[in-house]
Structure formats: structure tokens, C-alpha cells
From TrEMBL:
Keywords: Signal. This is Thioredoxin domain-containing protein. Pfam families: AhpC-TSA. It comes from Pedobacter jeongneungensis. It comes from the Bacteria.
């Protein structure tokens, strides 16, 4: 199945590049001509999103695709990717577990040009053009051309969005040193990952590209110190926002957003694992165990960051009477596709717990398939179940390490709750038998 999807993705992308009108399995039939490769060092790329340019930076180490590492740079964050050839002068850079890729042609002057391309079957028309040039380490403003900033944006901000539908408030944590601006934007669903940008006069801008669709936040510092601007979400849409500096700004409590419906104590579901075998919480494997249930998607960056946290935690603690289950909701309602995407996630992050396929990534469908929940708000959502099979904690969203205190608080409470539940006594077999008989 992996080979099938890999070939299908390359074939779908071949038309993008004039020299790539062939399938990967025919590359070896070409004359043995030295393949072009791009220069090592720091690069500056620019996506074209509607009328907006979204810059990003990356570093290339290695003399050829087989040995090269392509690293996206965002402030202090580093994300590594592998490179494959498409013919003699074109490259394919898969965004690891995200079903998207950078597909680029090496131009005669050493620059590269191409597209950030969705690889999801049926969504392959979604693409963003980009170009990149080696030797440029700046993101927005060339060295020597900075304009003195009119304000320092360091601190915590409350962002209010405006759209046709209700938009949850966001909290921004920004740090400014001279013209350089870095930060993270948080909302109930998770965080933006680390952003990098600049303040020029009364204008500010931040961008981020770490594998999922690129994003840019840009706007104006108003005379009263407030902000007004726009967020462009890569392939997706734009959102207007205003910002007010507020050291007390907070998001809703993530432990109180999602809960079980009144009178319900347990979660029930049956979903297939990656081999197609039905799995339920009532299976013997989970009886008497503390169980962590994660509702995730491989397309979701906060889910990936949560997996980076949970997988090593589970591998360290699995013998303490705890199990974990990840239920993946993907961009295509197809078990074979789920095997491919979720299998990539499993292999990339050394996941030892069960991974199930939940179906299409649609919040309404998730709520329908898990009717015990009052509502479903965000990927990821973490549900912690005690040894009796009763839900004890539900956490909506995820805040990664870049959020500092928010991540530290999450990690501390997660471990405290798990330690307490693991320490509880294991119910007798009679308890589970009575439960099964409805007593």
C-alpha cells in the first residue's frame, strides 16, 4: 500500500514539472547523466498566496539527494525532511507525515521554483507556487534596510478575529528585539508553532512554515497601541483580527470545554486498527488499565506535536498498567488511505500503542461517532479513562513546547493525573463481569 500511494503521488505531480513527464519506476531507464542538485547553505523561499508573499527559510546540508537533509527554520524550531529526485533536475520533498510535498525544478541559475502540493487523493489541485534562492538568510527585510519600529510588541496579546462565522479569540505571546519579532499564537484548538518576523515602523509581520500549510500574520500598530491585521492560512482562507495588549489574557480552560453528556460515565466506540481488526474499549486488553484516548489526524500539526509528547511517554510508562489508543480522522474516508497516512505517523514517531482509523476528518462526524461527548471542538482531544473504564479527564487541543508555561503546566498536570489513576486499585474480574451484564 505504501508503494501504491508513493507512485500515485509522484505520478500526480509529474505534470507540474516540464522535465518530469515520466513515472518514478522509469528513472533508471534514463541515460546516466549527472543529476543537478542544489547548493548547501541557508535559503530564502517565497510562497505566493493570492496577492500575498509568504517568505520562509530553510537550510540544506548534503551534496546529493541521497545524503541531504532539508531543514525548515522558524525561530529556534527545526524540522528535517528528506529529498528525492524527480528526473535529472527536479526534486520531491515530502512533508514527513503530512500528505503534502514541495515539488521543485532546479533552474539554470541555481534557484529552485515549484509548488507546495497537496497529495491527498481528490485534493491534488490545491497548490501554492514558490521560488527559493540560496545565500539569503533574512526572512522579510534585507540587511541594512530596516526601519526603526514605533513600538515594542513584547508581551501577551488578546487577538479577536472577524469572519462570517464565530471565531474563537486567540492569545499571542510575542518577543521583540530591535526589529526582530518572534512568537506563538494560541487558540482553543492548539498553537501556531513558532513564528518569525519583523516590525518595520508601525507595520508588523510574522510567518511560519514547518510542513503544514504556510501562514502569515501581518498588520498595523495603531496610534493607541492596539493592533489590526490579517491572518492568511496558506492554501486556506484569510481572517481579519484586532489585538489588545493584556498580560491577563487567557483562553477558556481546556479541561472544561469537552465533557461527557449528563448521566454518562463511559466512552464507547469500535473502530478498525491498521490491519482492519475492530477494536473497542471493552476488549480484554484494556480492562483494569488506565487508558489514554487521543483523537488526532496526520494533517494536524498540533496532533503531531502531541504525538511527539505522548509516544516517548507511553514507551517509558507502558508497563505501569496504562494503555493508549490514537483514533485518526483523515482527509479521506478510506481505510487503505488511513493505513498509509497513519502508518507513516506510527513509523516516524515510534508509536507502540494502538492506532485506529476513525474515518473522515469532520467534526460533526466525530461527534456522531462518539455520541457520549457533549461536543467535539478540536484535534487533538485527549481523553483519560480510569481502571474502571470511566472517563476522568478530557483535554481539548494541545499547546507545544514553544508556549513555555502553558506546555509546562500541561505536562505537570498530565503526569499528576496519570500517576494518581495508575495508583488506584485494579477492579476485580467480577466488577467487569457485572458491568458487562449491565449491573
Amino acid at each position: 500500500m505504501k508503494n501504491y500511494y508513493a507512485k500515485m503521488q509522484v505520478l500526480a505531480l509529474a505534470s507540474l514539472i516540464s522535465t518530469a513527464a515520466f513515472a518514478v519506476n522509469k528513472v533508471d531507464e534514463e541515460p546516466k547523466v549527472a543529476k543537478k542538485f542544489i547548493k548547501e547553505g541557508i535559503w530564502r523561499g517565497v510562497f505566493k498566496v493570492a496577492e500575498t508573499e509568504v517568505p520562509f527559510n530553510f537550510e540544506l546540508k548534503g551534496k546529493d539527494a541521497e545524503h541531504a537533509t532539508f531543514t525548515l527554520l522558524n525561530g529556534t524550531r527545526r524540522d528535517d525532511f528528506h529529498i528525492k529526485y524527480l528526473g535529472q533536475d527536479s526534486l520531491f520533498i515530502k512533508m514527513n507525515t503530512y500528505d503534502a510535498a514541495l515539488v521543485a525544478k532546479i533552474e539554470s541559475d541555481g534557484r529552485i521554483s515549484g509548488e507546495y502540493k497537496s497529495l491527498v487523493p481528490g485534493l491534488q489541485g490545491n497548490a501554492l507556487p514558490f521560488t527559493a534562492e540560496q545565500g539569503k538568510s533574512y526572512r522579510f527585510v534585507e540587511p541594512g534596510k530596516d526601519v526603526a519600529p514605533t513600538a515594542n510588541l513584547t508581551g501577551k496579546w488578546e487577538f479577536k478575529g472577524f469572519s462570517k462565522e464565530a471565531v474563537p479569540n486567540k492569545v499571542a505571546i510575542l518577543k521583540q528585539e530591535g526589529n526582530k519579532l518572534t512568537g506563538v499564537i494560541m487558540q482553543v484548538t492548539g498553537d501556531s508553532r513558532e513564528l518569525e518576523g519583523t516590525v518595520q515602523g508601525n507595520q508588523f509581520v510574522l510567518s511560519g512554515f514547518s510542513g503544514p500549510s504556510p501562514k502569515i500574520y501581518k498588520g498595523t500598530i495603531n496610534e493607541d497601541g492596539t493592533l489590526s491585521g490579517e491572518i492568511s492560512q496558506g492554501i486556506y482562507d484569510n481572517l481579519k483580527f484586532t489585538g489588545v495588549k493584556d498580560s491577563q489574557a487567557e483562553l477558556p480552560d481546556p479541561y472544561k470545554l469537552t465533557h461527557l453528556k449528563e448521566g454518562v460515565k463511559k466512552l464507547a466506540f469500535t473502530f478498525p486498527d491498521l490491519n482492519g481488526k475492530p477494536v473497542s474499549l471493552t476488549d480484554d486488553k484494556y480492562k483494569g488499565k488506565v487508558v489514554i484516548v487521543e483523537l488526532v489526524g496526520t494533517w494536524c500539526p498540533n496532533c503531531t506535536d502531541q504525538t511527539v509528547f505522548l509516544s516517548p511517554w507511553f514507551n517509558k510508562n507502558s508497563k505501569r498498567g496504562v494503555e493508549a489508543i490514537a483514533i485518526g480522522f483523515e482527509q479521506k474516508d478510506d481505510l487503505e488511505y488511513g493505513k498509509y497516512t497513519l502508518g507513516k505517523l506510527r513509523d516516524k514517531y515510534n508509536i507502540k500503542y494502538d492506532i485506529l482509523f476513525g474515518g473522515l476528518a469532520d467534526k460533526r462526524l466525530v461527534a456522531d461517532k462518539l455520541p457520549a461527548l457533549n461536543k467535539f471542538i478540536a484535534y487533538p482531544t485527549t481523553i483519560i479513562i480510569d481502571r474502571k473504564g470511566e472517563v476522568r479527564e478530557i483535554y481539548t487541543g494541545y499547546t507545544g513546547t514553544v508556549t513555555g508555561k502553558y506546555y509546562d503546566d500541561y505536562e505537570k498536570k498530565f503526569n499528576k493525573v496519570l500517576d494518581e489513576l495508575i495508583a488506584e486499585p485494579v477492579p476485580s474480574a467480577a466488577y467487569f463481569e457485572a458491568q458487562a451484564n449491565g449491573k
